[in-house]
Amino acid sequence: MSKLQRIVVIGPTASGKSALAAHLANRLGSIVISADARQCYRELNIGTAKPEPELLAMAPHRYIDILNPDEPENASAFRRRCDVWEQEHFRQSAAPVVYAGGSTLYLQSLLFDLDDVPSANAENLATLKERAEREGLGKLYEELAAIDPVYVARIDGMNRHRMFRALDVWMQTGRPFSSFHKQDGYDDPRARSLVVMPDIPRAELHARINQRVDLMIKAGLVEEVRDLLTRWDENLQSLQTVGYREVISHLKGDISYEQMKADIKTNTRRYAKRQLTWFRRWPFVQKLPATFHDQLQAVTACLETSH
């Protein structure tokens, strides 16, 4: 049996991570843990591109549909959950756990240990919320960029929850939030980890993204968001996500239907570019061929050498 403890399939959105992970877990008799910061939320289905039922049936999946949309979550909590799931799995199996996801901060917490980060300070968060309402979120974004440009480069635009968290930590400690990572993402990851990434040509990736957006809208993304807004606040952390933000703007009458579609595609491509920029900083990532069959063969070969 492989000496590996985890196989981590990373990559930009629409690169085929979920399918590859499900097939690998099925072949190994293992489980899949999603490393996606939004698939953990119930009711957010189409916009988060959760794995199709046939993929979910191939292997047990973790970190999907475990939280309500208004429940807070962060990378540290994700790591703690993963540690528990790994321990439970290894009591029954020696097969490596398979991860799949593209959320850079969550992957960072999985692959590298963190210093102890202080818990959220309610008073600080209330102050930041009041300032955002009075001065605008852009002002806080500028402050965070000056305080912690490393962290700003990692987050998905003006993500309110992540901005507040980073500013809260700085207010408590005087340290940039990014400094709490013991490693800066350039060295080797945790022992017994194989990190792989499908290497999809840029033009093909963009075509996949555009197609995925079209399919999401056809599958009822607008209706999903409209339904969510009947029960949940539009400012929830979980809804500060590409796809949901643009549909909310459309439903509020700020942009047209066609502009909404164009914006989702543009912003998703930009998000994929940021993901790739971050992953390129990790020299330990093993790139996989573009085709699914060749990807399976390449990972299988890596497993054989790790025996």
Tell me roughly what share of residues is in helical segments: 40-55%
Give me the number of helical elements: 13
Q: Which radius of gyration do the C-alpha atoms yield?
A: 19 Å
Low-confidence stretches: none
CATH architecture of the largest domain: 3-Layer(aba) Sandwich
The end-to-end distance, rounded to whole angstroms, is: 6 Å
Strand residue percentage: 5-15%
SSE sequence, one letter per element: EHEHEHEHHHHHEHHHHEH
Strand order of the largest sheet: 3-2-4-1-5-6
Average pLDDT metric:
92
Oligomerization category of the chains in this entry: single chain
| CATH structural fold name of the largest domain | Rossmann fold
Determine and state the CATH class of the largest domain.
Alpha Beta
GO molecular function: ATP binding; tRNA dimethylallyltransferase activity
Enzyme class: transferase
Keywords: ATP-binding, Magnesium, Nucleotide-binding, Transferase, tRNA processing
Protein name: tRNA dimethylallyltransferase
